[in-house]
Amino acid sequence: MSDLRDNTRQHRFELDVDGHTALVVYRREAGTITFVHTEVPGALRGRGIGSRLATGALERARAGGLTVVAQCPFIARYIATHPAYQDLLK
User: Where are the domains of the chain?
Assistant: First the structure.
């Protein structure tokens, strides 16, 4: 996902849509990325933005060879309903 930005200074993936920023906060350590929180502004809800964030973040984890810990309930539900990402779980 080319429009997904990895803001390493703030430890989050960001997606700008219509003047708003949706984000997934993470922690990285020793080959693992822990997704802590997903936030989609109210103005963007119901438009699939959370799913775009989850897909992009999980694809970045896969490309980086990282194992995923899904502390964030949204990311955990997304992985549970998208079996293609279940192999990333620690």
Answer: 4-88
